[in-house]
Amino acid sequence: MPSMHEELLRLKAAAGEELAAITQLGELEPFRVKYLGRKGEFTLVLRQLGQAPPEDRPRLGQLANEIKQELESAYASRESLLAEAGGGAAQAALDLTLPGRALPFGKLHPVTQVMDSVCSIFEGLGFAVAEGPDVEVDFYNFEALNIPPHHPARAMHDTFYISDSLLLRTHTSPMQARIMEKERPPLRMIAPGKVYRCDSDITHTPMFHQVEGFLVDRHISFADLKGVLSVFITRMFAENTPIRFRPSFFPFTEPSAEVDIGCVICGGKGCRVCKHTGWLEILGAGMIDPEVFKKVGYDPEEYSGFAFGLGIERIAMLKYGITDIRLFYENDLRFLSQF
Amino acid sequence: MKFTLNWLREYIDTDLEPARIADHLTMLGLEVDACVPCYPDLTGVVVARIEAVSPHPNADKLVLCDVNVGQERTRVVCGAPNARAGLVTALALPGAVLPGGFTIKPAKIRGEESCGMLCSAKELGITEDQTGIMELAADLQPGQPISQALGLVDTMIEVDLTPNRPDCASVLGIAREVGGVIGKRIKPPVAAPPTLAGENLPFSVEVESGADCPRYAARLIKNVKIGPSPWWLQQRLLAVGMRPISNIVDITNFVMLEYGQPLHAFDFNKLAGGRIVVRRARSGESLVTLDGTAHQLDSEMLMICDAEKPVAVAGIMGGANSEVDAATTDILLESACFAAIGIRRTGGRLNMSTEASYRFERGVDPQGAPKAMERAVQLTVALGGGEIVAGGVDYCEGVVAPAPITLRGSRTRALLGMDLTLEQIGAALTSIEIDAARIDDDTLRVNPPSFRVDLEREIDLIEEVARIVGYNLLPTTLPMVPMSFSEQDPLRELRKKVAQTLTALGFYEAINYSFVTPQHCDLLGLAAEDLRRQSVHLLNPLAEDQSVLRTTLLPGLLENLRRNVNHQNHDVRLFEIGKVFHPVESSQPHEPFRLAAIISGRRNPGAPVLYTGESPADIFDVKGVVAQIVESLRLSGAITCETCVVGQELPFAEPGSVLAVRGGTQILGWCGAFNQKTLKGFGVKQQAFFLDLDLAALGGVAPQAKNFASLPKFPFAKWDMALIVPVGVAAGEMLSAIHGCGEKCIEKAEIFDVFQGKNIEGGKKSVAISITYRALDRTLDDETVGKIHQKIIEMMIFRFNGQLREA
Lengths: 339, 807
Known about the structure:
Distance between the termini of chain B: 91 Å
Helix content of chain A: 25-40%
Order of helices and strands of chain A: HHHHHEEHEHEEHEEEHEHH
Radius of gyration of chain B: 42 Å
Distance between the termini of chain A: 86 Å
Largest sheet of chain A: 7 strands, mixed
Low-confidence stretches of chain A: none
Oligomer: heterodimer
Strand content of chain A: 15-25%
CATH architecture of the largest domain in chain A: 2-Layer Sandwich
Mean pLDDT of chain A: 89
CATH topology of the largest domain in chain B: BirA Bifunctional Protein, domain 2
CATH superfamily of the largest domain in chain B: Bira Bifunctional Protein, Domain 2
Strand content of chain B: 25-35%
CATH class of the largest domain in chain A: Alpha Beta
Helix content of chain B: 25-40%
Strand order of the largest sheet of chain B: 26-29-32-36-35-34-33
Number of strands of chain B: 40
Mean pLDDT of chain B: 93
Number of helices of chain B: 21
Low-confidence stretches of chain B: none
Shape of chain B: elongated
CATH superfamily of the largest domain in chain A: Bira Bifunctional Protein, Domain 2
CATH topology of the largest domain in chain A: BirA Bifunctional Protein, domain 2
Number of domains of chain B: 6
């Protein structure tokens, strides 16, 4: 009969060998029962510990414990190894290239998206938002803005009329007059909204969107106009967007300016979109004309300010490379889903 | 305003490249729209003289031309009717590429060698003339390149003028601006015109009102020979898109373009009494203008008349009755200044716009008339060979000298935000002929030149300073303004929030035109007295289908749906938030915001069919959307969605498939299914569901406050019941009955199944309801819950005439 010591070592070797040969998770349980279970071989050997000479018992007990712990730990790592491998096989059965179970979602109209970005830039600069009526009184659309009847500037506007005195606003600038009439400076406002002009082709729709803005206080200068609009442009386009200001004419501002940015299509090299100038007109602006101030009862010697206006569709077309403005109003999902 | 570079260089000495000039002009506020070569590249086209012409042996309509091209002779086959010996014309040699892209090659034409092509002016892109090959001056040297011989190297520049700069509606005006940039003065062709006066003139001029006509100069030229203008003059006009007519007419047009002063030539012998009377039209008078249109005149319109009748609409167009024609011998030349406002009014009323009226409407230099007159007289004598009648008339009683303007350096600096000395300011103005004299350390006295009718106020001069200094050289700063909080418009916030909710629910945002066709109301089947039929009409719509302002958003969305379906996109969820317009008597219309949405096709557009299947959307989809909007706005308690009978408001809805959205007693809108008739009317071939809400009214409902409630500490118990009730019983009422029964422990009641059919008696349905019970102060035991549940079952059985469905 082999000594208990030998028996323990033999068990250790046999169990180790058998464990290493196991490749299926299912074979682990019989192994555990055979060696480590309550009636397993190990337990049987340990039960014989009482029959060993008393002086050998501590040594044998310690050895038995060491072997048992070793075996248990080997068993655990084998189990987790097989579980991992087996799990992998189970996962392969799931075809993960199938689409996710996405809930449907829609998008805001590109005009709204651009309008929101424009407004939020100015709101960030402390401008308040005011919206006015689409059907405007001739007075606010024209006369309050220093465009009397028969003024040649009216020819620039192609107005839709409702009656002698009512029209569809041709710009959102009437809000300038409406607000200044009611409130005193300092004022910082933007007026977003729909505007209308009787014109329809690949670059004009009879309805489009504008944001008009103005700032009035003491000591406001043309340099401030340049500063605020430059901030807007670098936020709206890119930090290094080339900007230029050039003289223009609006009846309600003086000096008046058009603001151009380096062509975003060709990078200023000249293309069809920028008419080979390398520049794109993006904003109209100017210092509010003293006549406009006088009409609302401000002293132009005390207050000065600037106003600006921009077309949302134009910016959207430039930003997204849209070539036909009419697409905005067809509401074709193939178009709307692109933005 | 169009001009050419060569033309500009007649008045200002510059060798700047065309692109540089264009750039300068744009940066001066004279935006250049086009800067293009006037003529095509005509390399290989030369002057040639036809020495001899002989018939083509094989073709009746062709001839063989023996052509002299300087050093050598060559033979060319030609089919032009005017090919004749001695004609100096244009020859495109082999290798030349004509403007159409056609390359000339030696060829055999009907068996005869042809070494080039004799060309018409049109073939060379010079003029529109294609009656025959070009007829050039006999003294041109054969062999000389045609571009060189005819001066065909030039650049056309077009400036988009703003209405405030009529002075630049002239080549001289543009030249003056260029001069300001390069530091040079212009050289006008007429320096100082003679003073016009004269006794015993064979004509007379009477001006009724100096306010209408501040200036009127007239001169008589006799025995002119009407004929075509010389090439140089035609070339100028052609280059800017004007058709040469005759020497006299061309001269008036040329001088107008040169000086910005419109001129008119009358056939003097057609003027009754030899008189010019500048007066308002009398009622009943009429005039046929040069364009052949007959006009009824009114007393607001300023006319040029002879002793008897109107002969021209002042400042706009001449009359046919005094037109210069081939038989004209004596002309009366008019160089006048008319009040801008009168020209605008008359032009507007007669619906006429001409080069002359364009300038007068914006303001013509009242001192410019004599100079332009002198220039035109000189040219007429040079080109038409007439005799000038000594003296003339120069009425100028209406001319008001422009008032001097005081310009403050301090004001200029403050408004521009730039440190400029008074000297710099003065120099900027002087560079474009605006005289500025120093008054004191801060003040300049400026006399605006007469050609700058736009300069009236200090601010006008400040703009000039900014323009000349250059906007891009002005500093860029951020304003120092007091901090303030900008108020938020609650309706705008609401619109944003609702839009956000809807996009999250799979809707794309649509934006439709505010103007629509009046037929939409018919297509929706709206009753005659429906308020939505009362719309705001445009007086001048672009088209009938855009002639009224919309009163409902639904038609726009239906049209969008049709468009998408037609493009094979059948699964559509669109919404629009926008204004509708309701007329208000003699005032601005009411413009409330509405929210409308449309659902059609699959329930889950865009989601993988694999999971969601093809199940089509139904009315519960729109009902659910309403519920989610209401929930997102925290209005759940205040707003309900109830079945309603289709009345006159919703003739477009399917009866039995409509819900009213109510806030208290107020109807905020509806949701439901469109009926087939409406869908058919809009060309939609599939079912569609809508919601249409009054957004402002929705915003008027107070949202539920956000008040924290302690989280329940005790578990809930969920008990089910299945009741068999008559099919007519509304499930919603069953839930209301449970909620309304007064039991405090009911946390929630939910329908989890509605079933009709197998094992259920006909005319009945099974409604399964799950009720969640919870007490806040203790755990409910089964016995307690059981008692309550049993009580509710009994209540339900009694109330809905039901019975318990055994499991």
